[in-house]
Specification:
Length: 164
C-alpha cells in the first residue's frame, strides 16, 4: 500500500511539474491597423501626449486631444489662462468599433478627422485652425469663420483628464 501511494504521489508531482511549466502567455495585442492616420499632416499627433479623451455616442465617434510638450505642461498644470505661445493642440477623431477582445468595449476604427490648433508666437494673433479629413487625410480649405470659431472655442475649453 505504501508503494502504491508513494508511486501515485510521485506521478502526481511529475504531472503537475510538467503541466505547470507550460508557457501560457497571453496572445500579444495586435496593432489596430484600422486606426492608423495616413496623409500629409504638419505634425504626427500620435507621437504627442494625450490631454483628454471624449466620445460622441450618437455619432459613434471617439476623440483624443493631444498636445505638444508646451501645451501638455500647461494643460496638466491646471492653469486657467490661455495656452502659452508655441502650444499646438491636435484633436484626432475616429469612428468607433466593437473591440474583438473585450465584450462591450469600443476601440478606434477609421480616422474621421484631425484638427490642429496652433497658438501663435505673436500674442495679438489668433490661433491658427486647420482641419484634415478623408482617406488619406487632406487639408480642408475654405472653412467658414463661424465654424472655425466654434471649433477653436471648443478645443480650448477642453480640460486635462485627471491622471493618477
Amino acid at each position: 500500500m505504501k508503494t502504491s501511494i508513494g508511486t501515485l504521489l510521485a506521478l502526481s508531482a511529475i504531472f503537475c511539474s510538467l503541466t505547470g511549466c507550460q508557457s501560457r502567455s497571453p496572445e500579444p495585442a495586435s496593432t489596430n491597423k484600422l486606426a492608423v492616420i495616413s496623409g500629409h499632416l504638419p505634425y504626427n499627433p500620435l507621437a504627442w501626449k494625450a490631454i483628454t479623451t471624449s466620445t460622441t455616442p450618437h455619432e459613434g465617434t471617439m476623440s483624443t486631444l493631444y498636445g505638444n510638450d508646451t501645451a501638455v505642461a500647461h494643460a496638466r498644470a491646471g492653469a486657467d489662462g490661455p495656452y502659452p505661445q508655441g502650444s499646438v493642440l491636435a484633436v484626432v477623431t475616429w469612428k468607433q468599433r466593437d473591440d474583438p477582445h473585450w465584450f462591450g468595449a469600443t476601440i478606434p476604427s477609421h480616422p474621421q478627422s484631425v484638427e490642429f490648433l496652433t497658438i501663435s508666437s505673436t500674442p495679438e494673433a489668433p490661433p491658427v485652425y486647420e482641419r484634415y479629413q478623408g482617406s488619406p487625410l487632406a487639408r480642408i480649405e475654405n472653412i467658414d469663420a463661424q465654424t472655425v470659431q466654434k471649433r477653436v472655442v471648443s478645443i480650448l475649453s477642453e480640460r486635462a483628464a485627471v491622471m493618477p
